[in-house]
């Protein structure tokens, strides 16, 4: 697998209403988490880039989960603005012309293409007019992402083995929809647990509610870190 510091493989989603709560949550997590995802909820609350800089100033890494989807020129210009923000990862939807435009401006920023949301299943794809399987669409979009200059994909742990078999270390696989044993599924439909995600080839996992909604979020994060360490021990 790609050489990544073990404790950076967990990305904690700061899915809270505003930047003040995000700071308080990050402080509560402490050194149990080194990598954070900040997404649309915080982007619409104000103070997004100040929060990003604050997290970076504390030594954290940041994943801007903005799922860009617009005409290629607009996405290109947005990526040009974001590449100096200090974020490690940026998400966009896996449409070829959009990915190609973004890749032209990414610099050191790593682009992650969203294949199929983990809250979608076969029925959702059928409603959108796609007749193939979820797995086929994920692999099709992963190939397009690689060919377009993206660095990785957002994909369920269920499809991670096929992505790694097809593309190896040429694409990072970042897996959301993580549900440790005993966690509620919520709106996730294609979820896996921590060990399964990494066993299937994920390079990083993104965990939101199972940490945020735990009685002790730091302890929940440390439990996940312990599972990750057990997966990667020599």
Give the distance, in angstroms, between the N- and C-terminal Cα atoms. Answer: 13 Å
State Rg. Answer: 17 Å
Count of the separate structural domains: 1
Backbone shape: globular
Low-confidence runs of at least 5 consecutive residues? none
Spatial order of strands in the largest sheet: 1-2-3-4-5-6-7-8
- What's the main sheet like? 8 strands, parallel, barrel
Q: Beta-strand level of the residues, as a percent range?
A: 15-25%
State mean pLDDT (0 to 100 scale): 90
Structural class: alpha/beta
How many strand segments?
8
- Kindly provide the name of the CATH class: Alpha Beta
CATH topology: TIM Barrel
Helix percent reads 40-55%
Q: What is the second-level CATH architecture?
A: Alpha-Beta Barrel
Describe the model.
The protein has 234 residues and is α/β, with parallel strands linked by helices. The chain has one domain: Aldolase class I (TIM Barrel, Alpha-Beta Barrel), CATH 3.20.20. It contains eleven helices and eight strands. An eight-stranded parallel beta barrel has the order 1-2-3-4-5-6-7-8, surrounded by five helices.
Which key features would you list for this structure?
234 residues; alpha/beta; TIM Barrel; eight-stranded parallel barrel
Brief summary of the model shown:
The chain is 42% helix and 16% strand. With 234 residues, it is α/β, with parallel strands linked by helices. The longest helix has 16 residues.
Topology:
Layout: E1 10-13, H1 19-29, E2 35-38, H2 40-43, H3 48-57, E3 61-68, H4 72-82, E4 89-93, H5 96-103, E5 110-114, H6 122-127, H7 134-148, E6 152-154, H8 160-167, E7 172-175, H9 194-199, E8 204-207, H10 209-212, H11 217-232
Parallel strand pairs: 1-2, 1-8, 2-3, 3-4, 4-5, 5-6, 6-7, 7-8
């Amino acid at each position: 697998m790609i050489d990544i510091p073990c404790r950076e493989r967990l990305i904690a989603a700061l899915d809270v209403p505003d930047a003040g709560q995000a700071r308080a949550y990050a402080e509560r997590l402490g050194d149990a988490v080194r990598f954070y995802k900040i997404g649309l909820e915080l982007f619409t609350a104000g103070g997004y880039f100040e929060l990003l800089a604050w997290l970076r100033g504390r030594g954290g890494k940041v994943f801007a989960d903005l799922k860009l989807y617009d005409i290629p020129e607009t996405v290109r210009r947005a990526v040009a603005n974001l590449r100096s923000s200090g974020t490690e990862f940026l998400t966009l939807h896996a449409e070829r012309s959009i990915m190609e435009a973004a890749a032209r401006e990414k610099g050191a920023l790593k682009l992650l293409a969203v294949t199929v949301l983990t809250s979608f299943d076969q029925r959702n794809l059928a409603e959108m007019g796609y007749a193939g399987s979820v797995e086929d669409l994920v692999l099709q979009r992963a190939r397009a992402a690689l060919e377009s200059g993206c660095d990785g994909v957002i994909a369920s742990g269920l499809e991670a083995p096929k992505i790694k078999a097809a593309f190896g270390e040429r694409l990072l696989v970042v897996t959301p929809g993580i549900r440790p044993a005993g966690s509620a599924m919520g709106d996730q439909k294609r979820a896996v647990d921590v060990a399964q995600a990494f066993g299937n080839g994920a390079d990083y996992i993104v965990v939101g509610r199972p940490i945020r909604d735990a009685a002790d979020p730091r302890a929940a994060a440390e439990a996940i870190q312990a599972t990750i360490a057990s997966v990667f021990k020599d």
